[in-house]
Fold:
Amino acid sequence: MRVPEFLVARRGRVRLRGIRTAKTTLAAVLAWLAALPLSDDPRPVLAPLTALLVVQLTLYDSLRTGLRRVVSVVAGVLVAVALTEQVDIHWWSLGIAVAGSLVLGRLLRLGPEVAEVPISAMLVLAVGGSDVAASGRVVETLIGAAVGVAVSAFIAPPLYVRPASDAVQSLARAMAELIRRVAREVEGDYTREQAQEWLDAARALGRDIAFADRALERAEVSLRLNPRARDKQHTGPSLRSGLDALERATVAFRGICRSLADRAQGDVPEQVYAEDVRRALSDLLTHIADAIESYGQLVGSEVAGTPEDAALGQALEAASADRSRVFELLRQGERLQGGAWELHGDLAANIDRLLRDIDSEARAKLRLSWPTRARMPRPVSAARSRLRRTMRDQPPP
Structure:
């Protein structure tokens, strides 16, 4: 059966679009229906309004927003009630209410909901501090917040682990592609302009790192308090440690490019390495690129629960052999004379640092400290296994 195109996300995955819109609409309608018998107002619009604002991207954000909104409304109502018992509403009493509400909201650390405190206070003051208006506002806010959190919790609470995994793997591929480009060009008689372009491109990887970091932050928040995250508690540490390692490797690669650029612009006998060194360095960078890409794939397989580090181990083994060959060539002849040894040292240190950051054995040891995947109930596990077998045995269209 062919899946409609509007349901297909990237890489052929099926994704139901419009879920958040449907959940928000449902929360608003349910809040209205729940508030009708409980509120003295025949049109309890505050309840659906609160539910509309409470439903957020993640369950944790919905719960936090709901709690903050309830506290802000209650605080504003209390300020208004306390003030109306002492004075009538005037311009100066309004100013006192607003200033006091803002100060109270900041003391309570309500964040984006701090403005709701003076808003609630002014709305209650507008009706003379009526007990009915004050209690009605609190009740409708409680109903709307409760309904919004309930809908967020029980109806498809979203997980953003896969987009974060895709972002980390995309960073690894972008970095590997750049390293392969440098490997191809360094084998030839490159110019200082080319070396500077490598350095600029390495610095530009910071944008990919920032994008992956934002995706990972959203994934980490979506895992908190989420009932669907029962068997995915290991994904947060896996993705965070993987991104940190790739970020450090990016800094080390930037150092490699800086060493090559400094050599091309410096006063040394060989502004461009000799052919034998360039060939060995090209092989080394090629295998490093393979290792970086394999590292990203390893992080993705860890998220799926089946770590596959064989390709990374093979690439690192080949890179280690190339590293020894490059370092041996740099110690030959007159290549250590003058100030050249300093550039050799910078290049060697950054190569070692990069290989250490993506070491497969260190990664395997790190996995032992992560939360283990929770075992699913046997009926659920059996059903999933049958579904996988059916999909595997189904002939392609």
Observations:
- The chain has 14 helices and no strands.
